[in-house]
């Protein structure tokens, strides 16, 4: 059995679809299944069992001999969440228990970290484990992820294989339920369809022109490909960046959406809200050297190609992957 936590979520549900396509059908889905909108992500997926996240630890103890691999992708992912107690419960402490059980039963594990751990990128975006304690996340969400990464490295006993993945700006199908936390592509699609134009934040940094703030956008299909690679690889444990390795501007991204919709570009720039202005990231770019060094050699999807596939293959049809 392959276990996916956060199974009904964006990345988790896409991973299950990729696993199914590769012939893996003994999938156990773990999540809080109370959100009906989110549960639509699991329609037509081949899953043998659904386990509520509150019952997961006992389920592992009862089924540990049948578990081949765990992908722990479940978390509270809202970067605007400031309830530290909730974040530490769902992100840090829950993950510690998963890691301890995987260690006890020697179950290989891949878990979701986040590029939010890098903060403003004061020391860059290199996945150097020796510098985790120097990172300065901008919000409690990033702190909860970084605290877990640090804790993992401090453990004397670990699963025989484990990997933490620092997701950068992931986009793609199955994020319909995410509301304001969905990718800019989803918001651009709806805004352009409704109004014919797209609003982007102005730059308040003289080093960047309006719309030229940069992010490392990575297509969810590439994320799934890397997860499958690690499931088969099962060596070289550690914490890895997961981006495309190439920063692109928000203007590039929005122009790609206009192109996919075959509409004339019209972009309006609005002031960045003052409450987030001093914590706004102007540049993120994953160093992917470490992942490449252990043998992952697949090319990453170009932003324009990924946007076309997402818009034409999924958003315009309201379909799921």
UniProtKB/TrEMBL annotation:
A Gene Ontology molecular-function term? ADP-glyceromanno-heptose 6-epimerase activity
Top-rank taxon, per record: Bacteria
- Mention any Pfam family matching this sequence: Epimerase
Which metal ions or organic cofactors does this protein require, according to UniProt?
Answer: NADP(+)
Cofactor binding note: Binds 1 NADP(+) per subunit.
Catalytic activity reads:
ADP-D-glycero-beta-D-manno-heptose = ADP-L-glycero-beta-D-manno-heptose
All copies of the NAD-dependent epimerase/dehydratase domain together span 2-243
Q: What is its EC number?
A: 5.1.3.20
**Which UniProt key words apply to this protein?**
Carbohydrate metabolism, Isomerase, NADP
NCBIfam families named among the record's database cross-references: heptose_epim
Domain-related comment: Contains a large N-terminal NADP-binding domain, and a smaller C-terminal substrate-binding domain.
Q: How does it assemble?
A: Homopentamer.
> What does the sequence similarity comment in the record state about its family?
Belongs to the NAD(P)-dependent epimerase/dehydratase family. HldD subfamily.
Q: What is this protein called?
A: ADP-L-glycero-D-manno-heptose-6-epimerase
Species source reads Imperialibacter roseus
